[in-house]
Structures
1.
Amino acid sequence: MWTVNQMPSLPESWRNAPISRRSLVLGAGAIGAFLAVDLGAVSYANNWIGNRITRQEIIDIFQSISGAHRGFRRNHAKGVAVAGYFDSNGEAMKLSRAAVLRVGRSPVMGRFSLSGGNPFVYDTPGAGRGLGLAIGFPGQRQWRTAMVNLPVFPVNSPDGFIAQLLASKPDPVTGKPDPAAMARLAVDHPETVAAMEIIKQYPPTSGFADSTFRGLNTFYFVSESGTRTPIRWSFTPHQNALTAQKGSANMLFDALVRQLRTGQLRWDLQLVVGEPGDPVDPTLPWPADRKVVNAGVLVLDSVQTEMLGNARDVNFDPLVLPDGIEPSDDPILSTRSAVYAASHRARSGEPKSPSAVQVDGVTR
Ligand code: HEM
């Protein structure tokens, strides 16, 4: 079993270095270098999701709402790259044989984002916040996950996802979602109405640093002996968030960058252990009394403007899993994998322009 400090290719700047603005950038660059070789790892198979929908239809809907922004993700388009490591305490080893869950340190590349297809959208406190992570070096041991700051997901099928996107699309005349479309969504997708009631009970925190990021979909952790245990995971913050300066288009990202300049940010990996009968449907929460295993701590210590070689070009496909973690049959997971591949494929072939969040330009 390796730890990051045993990897000869990592420069000294990435190991236990004091955090300065320069080391923030150097550190992220080092991590970027090891992932850049992995860009082709995610396969691109057929275009169909279920019987009636293609992944291109979903990509087209994103673009019809947010416009075409060449070179950027079709969803969660606005973001910033981060890096650090995950220190596993070994508590999850009885559940999963995954290498990243053995006692030790794994390198991490990540990306904070806001939901939606507009890479230049103004930060607002209510915008959905995302965190994508690639834990461990590329290959069969790497674990990728993309999480949001919601307690449950508002939809449980590709149809529901499309219906929700279309219903929330602003009417060109009023600038607001069409009330008739919203009413139709409520009739056709009562699970979305119920999930939104739960979501309302979890108002967003003040920033990225104090957000809990949840995987929401159900996975199976597979032990050395082959026992499969349903798991939902989340990363819970150790810190409060620095106050965002209102009036800045990037207020949430700016606060994150300023906070990372002053020290590391930490989140605990919490594994919620499912029991027989617990739903796979991501609109449905599990009972609150489920056992929780604290599997280790995520430490982020560098931040970098999106660029070649860092998280900009990574596909945080939730089906890139190490041996020891397996997907459930939740159709949202296979839909995500197919649509992320389409988005990644499209943006990879397009010219790039500078991201809205320029780390060196953050002064307040
Ligand atoms: C059917 C449901 C979903 C669809 C169609 C969808 C679609 C997308 C697309 C097209 C991207 C951009 C991918 C890329 O270019 O690399 C994306 C990114 C992302 N999605 Fe989803 N998504 C879905 C569900 C979810 C769920 C359930 C979560 C969280 C639990 C989530 C969290 C994220 C995050 C955090 C990112 C940004 C990751 C990064 O920084 O690259 N998505 N999504």
2.
Amino acid sequence: MTANDVDLTPPLSVLLRRLPDPTATDQVTYLEAELAGRFEAANAVAVSSGTAALHTALVAAGIRPGDEVLVPALSVPMSVAPIVHAGATPVFVDSAPGSYDVDHEDLAAKITPRTRGVEAVHLWGRAGDPDRLARFAADHDLALIEDACQAHGSRHDGQLLGTFGDAGCFSLRDGKILWSGEGGFILTHDETTAAISRGLRTHWQSPITPPPHLVGYNYRLAEPLAAIARANLARFDDLLAQRRHQTQRLHHQLAGVTRLHVAEQHEGWNGHAPILRLDVPRPRELNQRLAARGVPNSVGTYGLIACDQRPVFGPPVGPPCRNAAAMIDHTLAVVLTEHNTDHDIDRYAQIITEEIRSWPNT
Ligand SMILES: Cc1ncc(COP(=O)(O)O)c(C=O)c1O
């Protein structure tokens, strides 16, 4: 079977004949067992989105209104919104100079008596140093939640991302390597975190007694979407190999283009998005120009900026996270899906090469 053939097992048509059934959970139950096995965690809890996964995991890990959660400025709004949904305050941490990884000195400097958690954000599927973050969280008695929404299948020193913290949160939205249209899941080694997450996602209509102070949500994953997720999970190795191939192909095509550098080449990396460093003046404009010419990318298409610069997350506290902002501005991260052919990738490479060669030096 190729990566583009989906085998819906059991067939979606059979499932649809059994629905509607508000008590149906078969597909979700099977999916959770399969996810736990495939992603090497004791428990998987399926939910309706990556955002829901993060919100649920933060609350299940003990984050409460008034708490502070440390989170990289190099992240997307969907990483940060769940902290606000939990009633907590995001405290933004800068990147290390010239790096996509958090600045560990800044991280330590931003702890206050209200700090209760750290959220690692594995943007573009990159790892950073999750071991170091886990040690930091343990030393300071903080919950560690991983935003692994783009990191399906990425490993650090052989260990899958999403399994380093108290909980790892994944998205199943279209465009992720593993997808079901919409959806998400939480991985956790901790039985209590899993049980609370299961209660929260369905207004406590689950076997465990609800802690009375926690209001539940409807964050259930719909059964037909769970069936699609199962079908895609069955071909996950192909999907992962395909994304790595696409990313490596683009990197390879662009090798040797001046003022452009491949920024990530890690063996355990899932290759979620080709990541290139633009050494040009006005790199954001170049990203926008590439988006306009049909090369979808994080900055030009989705307007990625450092999250401490987004007014919706409150007035800036302390100096801006300048390293994160500079890294984002100079990064061309190309957005891929499984439908991008070699021809598409080669066209992207051609457009990027043309644009960067003609881009003025001032
Ligand atoms: C890094 C990151 N975090 C969180 C999310 C939120 O996931 P979802 O769109 O499934 O809610 C996404 C997905 O777009 C993401 O890429």
3.
Amino acid sequence: MKTGSDAITAAQIRGTLPAASLDARAITRLAKNPGCQRLAAITQIGSSPGKAMQHVFAENYREEQSRFALAKGRVFERVQCENGAARLLASLSAAGILGTNDVSVRDINAETEYLKAPVAKQKRAIALTDQILRQKATGDPAAPAVVLQAALAIPLSSGEVACVRPDVLVARPDEEMFRPGELKSYAYLHHLTDQKDVAQAAGQMGVYGMALERRLAYLDLTRPVPHEGALVLVKPGGLQSVAQLQNISRDISTAHRIIEVRPRTLAELVATIGTGATLDTKAAIMSLSPCYSGKCRSFCALHDICRAEAAQHGNPAILGDEAEALLAAAGTNLMRVAELIHGAAPTSANEELLQRRLQTLELEWRQAS
Ligand code: SF4
């Protein structure tokens, strides 16, 4: 039997908060702070921190990625995919991911371009992708080697459907299923390639891998998805690319866990904000527990709101990771730190240690000035 919280839909809890796509970016964002109830709730009801920021906290807020980075990324992708994806195929072949004769390409964006309404376009893209997955799973030799912008639909227990669009799906004819791939305009520098960039791309490929596994299960197609994604980066000095295989097993598992947590937290959400309440007000959003850290700035539009709240509560997270760890070990907050600096008597061994550490830091600072 359904309970009241099971019966409620994500759209009802959203209220007037604008909807946002539940795409790879949204799922990757969740994986960056799995302990944050506020972020999870806003995502699970089908909105985003950016929409909440603009609709509830700051009307003039505009969510923007660096225009330069966006333009660079778009140009790189376009160049790889033009002329029958000639550059992309050459890089995949040079890396041994495809053979030199594996040149059949399907471009789902191009095949749905004639449709103007976004909903119809997405529906057609999902149908075309499903056809290709069936072809591949049944060993049809006509299955393409490369699929650009496939549309993988994941039905969620809340009744919504997340649609994930991998840059590329790749498979040789002798492979049972496609592997996910990602095109990134990051520089390929052999062993000096920035590992943070690689980890970010692997996280995104993990979401694609999870979506592919779930779509195959939904279509009753039991074929294993390779857990090595095809990462395509820029060769320095131009727009040529370099492809490499990247292990994404852990990233796929993380993405599955993030998706599985949905129904539980949706029910928890109703319990937290109250039956019938909506998440389109400051009070409702702030009633959800945050899990603020200095890292939030790099991925969540609500960072200024959560940072101000953390400062108000004397949360040491606003001082950065090192200071947070020091204060967390002593189980204290910034107000108590101020008291200890001004000579208050420690009430525990941890506070005593912290006070000594603070006194040493202060002495070093005085000696250095
Ligand atoms: S900024 Fe706030 S809502 Fe966003 S992840 Fe951090 S704590 Fe959660």
